[in-house]
Specification:
Low-confidence stretches of chain A: none
Structural class of chain A: mainly alpha
Oligomer: homodimer
Number of strands of chain A: 2
Mean pLDDT of chain A: 90
Helix content of chain A: 40-55%
Largest sheet of chain A: 2 strands, antiparallel
Number of helices of chain A: 4
Shape of chain A: elongated
Strand content of chain A: 5-15%
Chain lengths: 111, 111
DNA sequence: ATTTTTTTTACTACAATGTAGTTTTTTATG
DNA sequence: CATAAAAAACTACATTGTAGTAAAAAAAAT
């Protein structure tokens, strides 16, 4: 598959990394997804996707310093790269192109 | 995985079925994706996804009548269901929620 | 009327992504 | 030092992405 396109969950995680703006690591990403989308995801799922996004050059990571809170390995902080931004933008524009081409818009036909 | 969320390619195909508004079948979907997104996909890929979307209740299908053009099995026409519309809408809204939460919007930082 | 060509669906197989359980590492605190 | 907490790393398997190949069906050619 092309490296330009991301899977559905990869896209959610990458957008969340961007939203967290330098404060993205495993647990904070889970919490953000939970609070913004109401979606429960596991730590293992998030970490696997972060590793794959890094392999694709969509994010980069650095270890943070030890903090004042109790315990734990050093956090691995993730930030979105220029490539990641580009990929998200392309995917968004392509979907918008299709939404705008709908002959019968159907948002809010339900509830 | 939840049946509410679709994969990246499933979403593209489902949106295209909706855009084609009653005229969606294997080849017409390929052509539409090619012309709107510039993306080349195989017939097998599209048909596999259509079958999965139907199993999930996102589309329904019917065979068309024979047309005036030469040869071929009867076309299997696909239409989006109410469930499909609902799924697309939810996914769109969730992504928009994340895009709107970006502290530093990055559309068009490149080119 | 049989063969060929065109159009299309159906089938099969494998690669990439989605998901979560388990283990290990690290550090603060009693 | 033992223990609890926080976090990353590892492992395994299910779902989705992708395309090649085969089969079916009907018009056209011979």
């Amino acid at each position: 598959m092309s490296q330009l396109y991301l899977g559905e969950f990869e896209e959610i995680v990458l957008l969340t990394v961007a939203v967290l703006d330098g404060k993205a690591y495993g647990m904070s990403i889970i919490d953000e997804i939970k609070s913004r989308l109401g979606r429960n995801v596991s730590l293992g799922a998030v970490q696997t996707v972060l590793k794959r996004l890094e392999e694709k050059g969509m994010v980069s990571s650095d270890f943070g310093e030890a903090t004042a809170v109790r315990g734990g390995k050093r956090k691995r902080y993730y930030t979105i790269t220029s490539t990641g931004q580009q990929s998200l933008t392309v995917m968004k524009e392509q979907r918008m192109a299709l939404w705008n081409a709908l002959p019968h818009p159907f948002a809010l036909n339900f509830i």
